[in-house]
Each structure stands twice: as C-alpha cells, then as structure tokens.
Specification:
By secondary structure, the protein is an alpha/beta fold. The protein contains 15 helices and 15 strands. The protein folds into 2 domains: 6-181 and 360-377, Rossmann fold (3-Layer(aba) Sandwich); 198-358, Glycogen Phosphorylase B (Rossmann fold, 3-Layer(aba) Sandwich), CATH 3.40.50. The chain has helices spanning 14-20, 22-30, 45-50, 67-84, 94-107, 128-144, 157-165, 211-223, 246-255, 267-272, 289-296, 309-312, 327-338, 341-358, 361-377, and strands spanning 6-10, 34-39, 54-57, 88-92, 112-115, 118-120, 150-154, 174-176, 198-202, 229-233, 259-262, 276-279, 284-285, 301-304, 319-322. A 7-stranded parallel sheet has the order 3-2-1-4-5-7-8, sandwiched between helices. The protein has a 6-stranded parallel sheet with strand order 11-10-9-12-14-15, with helices on both faces.
Length: 385
C-alpha cells in the first residue's frame, strides 16, 4: 500500500542545509516524502519552513568537546527519532553522522543514510592528541555503521577508501556522489573580464582553507611586480576556534596585500568579475562547492593536491594542483595562470565541460534519490507520488 514515508535530515546548521541540500529536499517532496529537518536554530530556519519543511530544533554544538554536552546531543537525537518515527534518516556532515548513526541504532531507525562533506582536520593532522581522538571516533563510527540498512555517501573516493581500509565500513555500504551539485543555469559561462587579473579565495575563512598561504603568495607576487588583485571572499566565524579573526582580515585589507570583500550572496556575479579562483586548503575536503561553481562559470582553479580538491581539477587542463602548505609553489602556479589569458580561457571551457559531465545538480540529486529508493525498495515500501 502506498503512503508518504517520513524523511528526516539531520544537519549541523540550517544555513548549510539551505545552501547545500534544498534541491534534494525538494526532490524528496516531489517523490512523495514527508520531509523533516533537524538543525540548531539560526536565521535560516524560517527559510526552511517557508519551503514547507518540518523543522525540529537540535542541540548540536559544532565544535564542542565537552563530554556532558556531547552525551546530551546523543540523548536529544534518540528522543527526536522516537518522536518523529522516520522511515529514513539522512545524516549530513561529520558530527551529524557520528552522533546520528549511533542514535539511530539505539532508537531502531529503520533506514539510515550518512553523508560526509569531508573528513576535515581530524584526518589531515597527525598529532598524538588527534590520533587518540581519531581512534575513539572510528570505534564509535564502527558501531554506528553497523546498521543493517545503511548507506554512507562520500564526495570523493579517497575518503571512502579511508573508512573501508580501516575496516569501519564494508565496501558495499559505500556510495560515491561527487559534491553537492551546481545549477548550471545559475552558474553560467562568463567571459574573462578586463584586466587587471583578479584572484579570489572564496570560502569560510578558517586557517585550514589555506588563507595564510594565499596571503603569503599574494604578497610574494606583488613584491615580484605581478599586476593583479587578490581578494578574500567570506566571513570569519567567532564560534570556530580555527577561524581567521576579523581583525586580521581588516589588517590585511588595510595593508593592501589582499582585499577583503566579506560575505557575498551573489556568487555568480563575483565569478563574472574574477579571473582565477584559488583554494589552497590543506584538510580533507569532500569536493568544495565553490570550486565546482567556479568551474561552471569557466574560471580556472589553483588548489592543493588534496582529497576533494583534486576531484574537480585535472592538473594543467582546468587549473593547477600544488602541494599543501606551500605558499611558494602556490605563487608560482598563480603567476603562470595569471600571465596567460589564452590559457585561462581554455582552462575555463574545460572546467565547465567537466562540471556538466560529473558535477551537475541534476546528477547529484538523482544519485541521492537512488540511494533512498534502494533502501526503501529493499524493504518493500511504496511511496505515494
């Protein structure tokens, strides 16, 4: 008998869900799901509710390490699952996956999808403290991933292999869906603007995104007489201990080494007035959405040879890959791209073709719905559409 299955998304921020997962929620609604979203409260909650999503407040502190607070988050999730009684839960981002998958087993949720947007600092740093925390987290995930009706989505194969090789996941539980998808009608082809060349780093402004390396490379190129503008696009996050302080961003801007444009809502317009997009990230990304958007707008990319970043850049074809934490190599690569307008145009065209083939929004949405259907159909559930 057909009915409307309940789908519950669990995410660390309403803002992130709104910017990265709304098309999937709309597709689920179109296919007959009753869609719920659980996030901590932030200004984007009202936007979720305007789209007829049923919102639930979640007590989830993104950067907390307080064991009592973490235990409360787990209890809160179990209570949420008992209350909503979802047919399928989709956990998004690392902390949601970690606590959500454990809570789902205790609450006996029927079907679970986990989505990693990246593995972050925990899998890129190698201090004694990080190794200890990583070991504890992997043991917890091994329990959470033991759910018999679960699938785990990774945005790049390196991150999926990491968990399979460590014995945390079985290969048949893993699904690869590249990135969050980009609407090619919104992020359109745009010709390179007039000179001087402008290079941007657009992201959450945290140190792990390679912000210092970008600034150092910009300073080096300006000292070498390279005629170009360099800009940081984004905002600091006072709740994130790894954030670049706002006073540092202001100081760089006043010094003139880089411009700080702040948060920009209209990114297609930003790309239209940009020549090169740079992201020297040195942690384990999924596939950075800003790089997919840049490629869709025919902008060459200079980024690091790191999992996630290298998924969207074919070195020498639509950009350059450089070693992480190496501002000198970054400066050399940026100079090569800046100094060749013809190459920038060729790289941009290749990048848009790559996005069309592998990273379009339609493909990401359909691949995600296929994972839902796989779990529901294996249990004989028929959706009302």
């Amino acid at each position: 008998m057909a009915y409307s299955p309940r789908l519950l998304f669990v995410a660390n921020r309403a803002e992130f869900f709104y910017s990265h997962r709304m098309p999937i929620s709309h597709a689920a609604q179109d296919q007959g799901y009753e869609v719920h979203v659980a996030t901590p409260e932030d200004p984007y909650v009202s936007d979720l509710e305007e789209h007829e999503l049923i919102w639930h407040e979640l007590d989830l502190a993104g950067k907390s390490l307080n064991p009592f607070r973490e235990l409360w988050t787990l209890i809160d999730l179990i209570g949420l699952y008992w209350s909503v009684k979802p047919d399928l839960v989709h956990h998004i981002a690392f902390k949601g996956v970690l606590y959500g998958s454990i809570a789902a087993r205790f609450a006996r949720v029927a079907r679970v999808v986990n989505s990693f947007t990246g593995l972050g600092h925990l899998f890129s740093a190698d201090t004694l403290k990080i190794r200890l925390v990583r070991w504890v987290v992997l043991q917890a995930l091994r329990f959470g991933f033991g759910h018999p009706q679960s699938r785990t989505i990774f945005q790049n194969p390196d991150n999926g292999d990491e968990f399979v090789d460590r014995g945390v996941l079985d290969r048949d539980q893993v699904r690869l869906i590249k990135g969050s998808g980009v609407d090619l009608n919104t992020f359109e082809s745009a010709p390179q603007p007039s000179d001087p060349p402008t290079v941007i780093l657009a992201s959450r402004l945290v140190w792990d995104k390679g912000v210092q390396e970008f600034v150092d490379a910009a300073r080096r190129l300006k000292q070498d007489g390279v005629e170009a503008r360099f800009a940081l696009v984004g905002k600091s996050d006072p709740l994130n201990p790894n954030a670049v302080p706002e006073e540092k961003l202001v100081a760089w801007d006043e010094e003139g080494v880089v411009e700080w444009w702040g948060f920009q809502e209209d990114m297609p317009s930003v790309f239209a007035n940009t020549h090169v997009v740079c992201l020297p990230s040195y942690y384990r990304e999924g596939v950075p959405k800003v790089l997919i958007e840049a490629a869709a707008c025919e902008r060459p990319i200079v980024t690091t040879d790191m999992p996630g970043c290298r998924e969207i850049v074919h070195d020498g074809k639509n950009g350059r890959l450089v070693p992480p934490k190496d501002s000198e190599s970054l400066a050399v690569a940026l100079k090569e791209v800046i100094s060749s307008p013809e190459e920038r145009t060729e790289m941009g065209a290749y990048g848009r073709r790559l996005v069309k083939d592998e990273f379009s929004l339609e493909r990401v949405v359909q691949d995600t719905m296929d994972v839902y259907d796989e779990l529901l159909e294996s249990s004989g559930v028929e959706k009302r559409t």
